[in-house]
Design goal:
about 90 residues, mainly alpha, about 0% strand
Length: about 90
């Protein structure tokens, strides 16, 4: 159960880091490569992070609600995936 809570917390934190790194990359002239996120950015403007973080919070709640071994493994992979995305975004700002 502790692993599920830590993973849920990590998922929310890495989502926030992804939002910050995406905004930094966009500020340097890069474009959003994900067409779904790009359309959300077009629809919500500067508030685009709210629905994105809402998805992260939903999945964090889902991990806590169903803390099976399989869910922990899948969630860990998702967190690592978003760490890689955020790292790439930070790389693009240099």
């Amino acid at each position: 159960m502790k692993a599920a809570h830590a993973l849920a917390f990590a998922l929310i934190i890495v989502g926030g880091i992804d939002v910050v790194s995406t905004n930094m990359a966009l500020a340097t002239g890069n474009i959003e490569a994900n067409p779904l996120v790009s359309s959300i950015q077009d629809m919500f403007g500067p508030w685009w992070a709210a629905p994105k973080m809402g998805v992260h919070v939903f999945f964090a709640w889902f991990i806590i609600w169903l803390p099976s071994q399989r869910m922990i493994m899948i969630g860990s992979g998702v967190v690592m995936f978003f760490i890689a995305i955020a790292a790439n975004n930070f790389y693009l700002t240099t």
